[in-house]
Design a protein that fits this description.
The chain has 211 residues and is mostly helical. The N and C termini lie far apart (59 Å). 60% of the residues lie in helices and 0% in strands.
Length: 211
């Protein structure tokens, strides 16, 4: 039986109390390619909510696919390979993708620590649920929003504008990148949804780029 003290600990659980130094630096970095923006406020469900528990149970049903997860872990590499496949790759385009994804980290990290949502494995441990997730170095930040989803959708929209002939593939690859984090059990599905919202928001806020 879960007691009141345990429920309180679950309700107030955070990913970590304070950001590590490199995360703090990202939250204060310069972002010359983006207009001054405030990411839309959209808090996640409470740790002890039915919705969060339902998301955990959904993650528990997903089959492990480490190859799919690792294939989509490096966002810039994933899209660069596509550009080369379509014979539209240029050094300038690759540089632009890197600059925009790098600068987007400021907005992503700020949102992550604003909500400081625990990762699924942290809450799953409270319930005694074994998610059997995939561990990667890119999973060492708060859960909400999914940074991979944010950046994947951002780059997907950028490349769609650059090469509209292959828009369906770019956007599908963004979906694959975002979904890979769910398959890894690294994120709740709602982390992905909010990440997509921010990615589209950042795309609209780009004020200068060179393709």
């Amino acid at each position: 039986m879960v007691n009141l003290k345990d429920l309180l600990e679950l309700r107030t659980m955070q990913y970590r109390e304070t950001p590590v130094e490199k995360h703090s630096k990202r939250m204060t970095m310069e972002t010359p390619n983006f207009a001054d923006m405030i990411v839309p406020h959209n808090p996640p469900n409470d740790n002890d909510s039915r919705e969060t528990l339902s998301e955990l149970k959904y993650l528990q049903t997903l089959e492990t696919d480490k190859d799919f997860v690792k294939k989509h872990d490096d966002i810039e590499k994933v899209f660069t390979e596509l550009l080369k496949e379509f014979n539209v790759h240029t050094p300038q385009l690759e540089k632009t993708i890197y600059e925009l994804t790098n600068q987007s980290r400021k907005f992503v990290m700020s949102a992550k620590y604003k909500y400081n949502r625990p990762r699924p494995y942290q809450i799953a441990k409270f319930y005694g649920i074994n998610l059997n997730g995939t561990k990667l170095d890119s999973m060492k930040t708060p859960s909400y929003p999914s940074g991979h989803a944010t950046q994947g959708y951002l780059v997907g929209e950028i490349l769609t504008q650059f090469d509209p002939q292959n828009a369906i593939t770019y956007r599908q690859k963004a979906e694959d990148i975002a979904h890979s984090r769910i398959v890894a059990k690294a994120h709740f599905p709602s982390d992905r949804i909010y990440g997509k919202k921010i990615g589209k928001f950042l795309f609209q806020g780009i004020r200068k780029w060179s393709l």
